Amino acid sequence: MSRFRIDVADLLSHAGARRTVRLAEPVEGLANSTAVVVDPVAVDLNLERISEGIVVRGAVTATWQADCSRCLGALSRPVEVHVDELFEPHPVPGETYPIEDHEIDLDQLIRDTVLLELPLAPHCEPPCSTVGLDGAEGDQGSPDPRWAALSELEL
Length: 155
Hints:
The protein is mainly beta. It has one domain. It contains two helices and seven strands, in the order βαββββββα. The protein has a seven-stranded mixed β-sheet. The longest helix has 11 residues, at 107-117. The mean pLDDT is 86.
């Protein structure tokens, strides 16, 4: 069972009802091919009952870790995503989220929003700590000796 499953029976019974939800919980498997989200994921949301269902507005925050795609150094960056989504009894696939048995599950909303913010090619903030793509040396002062043979090639 998802830790982000919220009982909204009180909201469904009163038009215009509102509630604030603040949670910080781990989300299993929240990663792409290059970056992984470090636990926990925090949500600070306002739930509001409207005629169609429940509108969820607020922020989802997390921290991702990855290796730099240039120098392979460890990276860790925060991500904050604003959400504004509708949960309804008869959801439109790909557009809205379901209300099931007087509950909403924020897990899929979190996955959809945070995964889109993860980098596909994470990199250090300039300058990267290795030889740059233009051949200029970075912070370490000398190129990696394992690549020395390549400097002898003539193109």
